[in-house]
Amino acid sequence: MDAQDEERPLIHRLPLPQDEISEFTSDGTVDISNLPARKQSTGNWTACFFILGAEFAECVAFFAISKNLVTYLTGVLHESNVDAATTVSTWIGTAFFTPLIGAFLADTFWGRYWTIVIFISVYVIGMMILTGSALLPVMMGLSYNRSIHRLTAYLGLYLVALGNGGIKPCVCALGADQFDAADPVERVTKGSFFNWYYFSVNIGSLLSATVVVWVQDNVGWGLGFAIPTVLMLSGLVVFVAGRKVYRYQRVEGRSPLTRVSQVLVAAVRNYNLVLPEDSSALHQLPSPAEGNHCKIQHTSQFRFLDKAAIVAPSSSDGEKGPTSPWRLCTVSQVEELKMVLRMFPVWVSMVLFFAVTAQMSSTFIEQGHTMDNHVGPFTVPPASLAIFDIISVMFCIPIYDRVLVPMVRRATGKERGLSQLQRLGVGLALSVVGIVYAALVEGRRLSLTHAAPDRQPSMSIMWQAPAFAVLGAGEVFAAIGILEFFYDQSPEGMKSLGTALAQLAVAVGNYFNSSVLAAVAAVTTRNGKPGWIPDDLNKGHLDYFFWLMAVLGVVNLLHFLHCSIRYRSSNNNTYS
């Protein structure tokens, strides 16, 4: 596919009057007063600094929990290794499932700004409860009740997961909204925003994996949770302070899920109607009625759905079928659903990637507890090894954005350098390399342990560092790429939902990891055997679990390559 094909837009924007082009944005965004947004006084990186500041605070809080949660569960709440790893994956999965709720509310009712403000408030309440739960043993003294402790901790955790649901899809989408997609300069800058958005995420993760994790392990969990709580309050203040310079997308007031459902229902109800050979005969409103200066081209895929846009005569029983949105939809509305369906194979491929990266917050930490964590005069908490994932991301993002993209752009003539599918493919391949390395390290550790069972751990925890680093590099390609892909390819009224779908891949990846862990535990502990992942990992075979994930990763990569070839052979440039 050549560069010209790649840049052919699926969505056509209607031109604004010439005298408005330089002063106002062309993508329908407005300012805080609901007036057309001026380019000079709103949006761009000035607005993004406030948005990224709030995201930084949220990431410190989120990773302060997730990086060391397995240690809290095993050491404080006394859960087993398998139960703790499953709990962590389930909680992270829930935290990345709730963005569907936030995206629905943002796209339908509240808009991105108010959704973020409300859900940050819920997040702060959850952090306060979690901090209180960590202080319960001290406050209750002899009357301490472990059941109340556990209940309070889980209440705080899942309020945080709910609060995360309104932040993750909306912060990323609101940041991208600050760049005019109709302006060639701002459109290129928007591509850089996703890279630097993920960079700020990892700055927050770095602070959590070093300072906050150290406080949790060496000072106490109460202070370790109180620090990110205070930071979240500060993030809310910073975010609200930038409200006058943000660009806002108008809320259509119609649920994107309702629009999708209407197409499906209308297509089924019109199943017996014959599709016209000329697609121009399908129902389409005049261009200005489409809103946001956008019109979506008709495509030939998923032809059955086109039946939802067939203009049929009124039924004999008097039902006003042609005027009902559940009987007749516009071509643009049908194409919105098609755009979502085209993204589905890519979404499925990303589930395994996030199942692999989930090991960094679960089994990798449990593995680290069995290794020698003394590095010179320092004692390194296993959760702090995640710093190598973060450093890898922070190193690779500027290299990718400032070196690789311009170099490939000159070679291929493509605006993004690597196509979005190529970027995702590299990330998937790196995830396989990372988990294979982890399996080799665990196999070597077990060999050394079995050779000298009475000795202290002889394998340094630093052997884990390359696995974290390789998976971090994979995140630069795949985790950032999937955010950009879903935002770009989603219909105009579904941008928050699009980024929520990207977050949903993280959720399903973690749920899938929980399911695999549970299945492995059930199968390998039969007949009284310790299983692959017992409480004493020296008696198990965690390396077998890593090899299982590697095999699944290879199969997933082959599936992704197969889908990529099919996409490139099609005439639809949505996946370019």
UniProtKB/TrEMBL annotation:
What CDD domains has UniProt attached to this entry? Answer: MFS_NPF (cd17351)
Q: Where in the cell is it found?
A: Membrane
The GO terms describing molecular function are: transmembrane transporter activity
Could you name the domain of life of the organism this protein comes from? Eukaryota
Q: What GO CC terms are in its UniProt record?
A: membrane
Q: Which SUPFAM superfamilies match?
A: MFS general substrate transporter
Biological process, per Gene Ontology: oligopeptide transport; transmembrane transport
Which Gene3D superfamilies does the entry link to? MFS general substrate transporter like domains
Checking InterPro entries in the record gives: MFS_trans_sf, POT_fam, PTR2_symporter_CS
Keyword field: Membrane, Transmembrane, Transmembrane helix, Transport
Q: Does the keyword Transmembrane apply?
A: yes
**For this UniProt entry, which segments traverse the membrane?**
45-65, 85-106, 113-135, 155-176, 196-215, 221-241, 340-360, 380-400, 421-441, 461-487, 499-524, 544-561
Q: How does it sit in the membrane?
A: Multi-pass membrane protein
UniProt-listed Pfam families: PTR2
What protein family is recorded? Answer: Belongs to the major facilitator superfamily. Proton-dependent oligopeptide transporter (POT/PTR) (TC 2.A.17) family.
Q: Which PANTHER family match?
A: OLIGOPEPTIDE TRANSPORTER-RELATED
Name of this chain's protein:
Major facilitator superfamily (MFS) profile domain-containing protein
Species, as recorded: Sorghum bicolor
